[in-house]
Amino acid sequence: MGMLRVEHLSRRFGGVQAVDDLSFATRSGSVHSIIGPNGAGKTTLINLLTGVYRPSAGRIVFGELELTGQPTHRFAAAGIGRSFQTPQIFFNMSALENVMTGRHLHEPGSLLAAMLRTPGLLRSERACRQRALELLEFVGLSTHAAASAASMPYGALKRLEIARALAGEPKLLLLDEPAAGLGPTEALEIGALIRRLAQAGTTIVLVEHNMRLVMDVSDQVLVLDHGRKLAEGDPARVRQDPRVIEAYLGAEANREHADARD
What we know:
Distance between the termini: 47 Å
Strand order of the largest sheet: 6-7-8-3-9-10
CATH architecture of the largest domain: 3-Layer(aba) Sandwich
Order of helices and strands: EEEHEEHEHHHHEHEHEEHH
Number of domains: 2
Radius of gyration: 19 Å
Strand content: 15-25%
Structural class: alpha/beta
Number of helices: 10
Helix content: 40-55%
């Protein structure tokens, strides 16, 4: 449940090798973070792992399912969900309605049932609404259920998108920079949410630039550099790797120091 295997995965765009012979595996119920400088191939990797891009070479296996080259709906049906760096929210809907849209894979019914408003369809709609309310409470947005998404602050929208992704009941959830644009307190809240998800059994693949968050929540950290694996291991091991410090963490530390002086 929730185990992902990536074997010798590559993706080329013309003359650019965005992901290059990458292999790794996740453990069920763990947080597997992917870090690296801009242009390292992180977003390309997430798009490969959700079927947005087809690999140029290599395999993607989830549990016992071979997903290499499959369309996006096959990845979703297999139990792989995702969030986006910039929240993809329906701003003309309420928070509750946004989460309910994430249940479409699990809602039975037909056009005829919808036209006739059959008892089975009505029961399904009530169950969908109840589950969406539970997920809003889980991410800390129960008081926003009836609010228009357009009126919600940015940090709340980040959590709303996670709730909508969870509505699809993913076994594996890919989070693309969930703390981007958030202040320290909101980033801590996202970290606590990620830990609760992993404890509940959801496998997390996290792409994130906030190193404090990454080191706090991760079981494993994979470092990419120009599409290739630079290092992989537990957070303590990775943060002490001289290659990682030189390629990425050192630059991050320098930026944090500069920010502190400003």
